Every structure is written in structure tokens, then in C-alpha cells.
Amino acid sequence: MTTISASMVKELRDKTGAGMMDCKAALTETNGDMEKAIDWLRKKGLSKAAKKAGRVAAEGLVGVTATGKAAAIVEVNSETDFVARNEQFQDMVRKIAALASKAKGDVAKLLAMPFPDSKDTVETYVKELVATIGENMTVRRTAQLEVADGVIADYVHNKVTDGLGKIGVLVALEGKGDKAALSAFGRQLAMHIAAASPAALTADELDPALIERERAVYTEQAKASGKPAEIVAKMVEGRLRKEFYQQVVLLQQTFVGAGGDGKATVEQMLKGVEKSAGAPVKIAKFVRYALGEGIEKKEDDFAAEVAAAAGQH
């Protein structure tokens, strides 16, 4: 049986906001499986932090570059935020982002490209900077969007300098209408995506495993009503449509950008843009990178490190 440590209980509490004893019980019931413990708490109605669960911070920068009808995004990780504030590191990320459009979302291709003003490839240049700075760095992921007719909007949140920050968003709008109107809305939509963190453009594009996980939670909660199975099934599907999809599907989310009234969905806002642009508009695709999303980051005991460095026991 897995030993439930205090640090595990603390991690679960930080992710869910549930009480310490409830967190310990959840971990005990799930044999220390963090994700299953989160679901256990949610099924008991003890956690409301589903959207935050599993998001563990890591350091580095997200870089974005956009040129008219094409744009690219890249995430480069470092071990500490101190290095992320280093001008040499920032310059490296900026130049890698500038190359990323040609890689078209292929990290291996990006790493094999010649690094600007250098005889090295991107991969070799990164390794040499690791040796210079003394901290591990990785080019983690990249994506590229382009449109034949329309605009690509971009937005960087928690910006440290132009094109570099903690969250990066690209959104492709297709349409033959007024490009100024498309660009203005695209910028607001990119800011909405940064804030609302949609999981997919439409319900059909959602990960089936994600839907099944929510369905299991809703089913467990609905069973407590004591109603017949067929009624429970209808209750669950209703909650998926009215609650879950409205939270994670971009077109169904309530628009939080400028120009919204706090009630209109993104899809409804899109209809308004079609009028001002003078032609149909389609959200073709979007990409949202949050720095360190999904990366397990080791928590070091700083006091122990200092004591060890000083030769104390």
C-alpha cells in the first residue's frame, strides 16, 4: 500500500481547495493516485478546482511571432525564472520563435534548423547555452497557423518583452471581409482564449477521455438523487451540454473580451463581426500555450540545500 505523505496531501489540497482530512482520505482511497483522488473529491462534492487540477508550473518563456497570414508559437523551458529573465535566454527564445513558422509545428525539424548568426543548429545552440548558464533548457513544443484568406491574431499574457511571456495565443480567422474588423476581433478573441482556456473549438473536437471523465463525475453525483437510471442518464447529458461544454468549448463560452455584454457566446459575437466585416467569418483554429502546463516540477527543500552546501548535518 502506498504511503500517503504530507507533501502529497498538501499538493492535493493546493489543487482542489478541499480540507486536509478529505485530501488524505481521497489519497488513501485511491492508493496515492493524484488524478483519481481529484475525481474522488469531485464526486463527493468536495472539490471545485477541476479546471486547475493537473496544471503544474514550470519556468521559461512562450514565444510568439506573427507575419500577416501566418504565425507560430514555441515554448522553451528553463529550470528557474531567474534564467527566463536573462537577456541571452530571451534572445534565444525570440530567434527560435522567428524560425518556428518554417517548422510548421514539428519540434524535430525546428531543432535541426540553423540558428541565426551561428554555425550551430537550434539544438546545438541550446545545448551550448545550457553549458554556459549551467541550467537545463528544452524546446518543448511548437505550433504554426496560417490562412489563405483572413487574419492570424496573437496575444501574449504576462509579457516580459515583445512576443515573449507566460501565456501565448494564436487564433486563425478565415474570411474575405474587412481585414481591420477581423484583426480587431481576433485580438479580443485571443485575449478571451488566454483568460478562458478553452479545450477545443467545438464539442466534436473534445478529447473523448475528457468527456468520459466528466460524465463519470456527473453520474456519481446524479445517482445520489435516487432517481431511475434513465433519468440519471438524461440529467448527466444535460449537465454536459449546459455546464461542461459551456466551460471548455470555445464557441459555447461566454465571451469575456471587450465588446461583450457578459451574456453573448463567442459564436454569437462571431455573427456580429460578420456584419461589421461584410462577409462570413470562421474561426479556423486556435492554439493556447500556458508555460509549464502539465509539467511535473520538482519541489526542492531550499533550507536543506543551504545546509548541505554549508556542510551542516
What's the SSE blueprint?
Elements: H1 6-16, H2 20-29, H3 34-43, E1 59-67, E2 70-78, H4 81-84, H5 87-103, H6 107-112, H7 122-133, E3 137-146, E4 150-157, E5 164-165, E6 167-174, H8 179-196, H9 208-223, H10 229-248, H11 266-277, E7 282-290, H12 302-309
Antiparallel strand pairs: 1-2, 1-5, 2-3, 4-6, 6-7
Structure overview:
The chain has 313 residues and is of the alpha+beta class. Among the domains are: 7-56, Ubiquitin-associated (UBA) domain (Helicase, Ruva Protein, domain 3, Orthogonal Bundle); 59-197 and 284-290, Elongation factor Ts, dimerisation domain (Tetrahydropterin Synthase, Chain A), CATH 3.30.479. The protein has helices at residues 6-16, 20-29, 34-43, 81-84, 87-103, 107-112, 122-133, 179-196, 208-223, 229-248, 266-277, 302-309, and strands at 59-67, 70-78, 137-146, 150-157, 164-165, 167-174, 282-290. It has a four-stranded antiparallel beta sheet. Strands 4-6-7 form a three-stranded antiparallel beta sheet. Strand 1 (59-67) and strand 2 (70-78) form a beta hairpin.
* Structural class by SSE content: alpha+beta
The helix/strand series, from N terminus to C terminus, equals HHHEEHHHHEEEEHHHHEH
Strand content: 15-25%
Tell me the name of the CATH class of one domain. Answer: Alpha Beta
By CATH, the superfamily of one domain comes out as Elongation factor Ts, dimerisation domain
Number of helices: 12
The side-by-side strand order for the widest beta sheet comes to: 3-2-1-5
Q: Would you tell me the overall average pLDDT?
A: 87
User: Radius of gyration over alpha carbons?
Assistant: 23 Å
**Net shape:** flat
Which CATH architecture of one domain would you pick?
Answer: 2-Layer Sandwich
Compute the number of strand runs: 7
Low-confidence stretches: 48-57
What can be said about the biggest beta sheet? 4 strands, antiparallel
In the CATH hierarchy, the third-tier topology of one domain is known as: Tetrahydropterin Synthase, Chain A
